[in-house]
Design brief:
Length: 61
């Protein structure tokens, strides 16, 4: 049975060279910010909804 790392390396071999920069960027973000990578994306999405107009509409539902 293949390990997760072996599966990932096998998939990388299948990715076209033109797309590898996206994989590298993602991997570097995970290494440099292992716990913040996903959290920051969800927080920034929630900030958009934090306003009086949307709160009023939501509270009426």
């Amino acid at each position: 049975m293949l390990t997760t790392k072996e599966k990932l390396l096998a998939l990388i071999d299948e990715i076209p060279e033109s797309e590898l920069d996206r994989v590298l960027d993602f991997a570097e973000n995970l290494v440099n910010h292992p716990h913040d990578y996903w959290k920051n994306g969800s927080e920034s999405s929630l900030d958009f909804w934090d306003n009086a107009i949307d709160n009023e509409i939501w509270n009426r539902m």
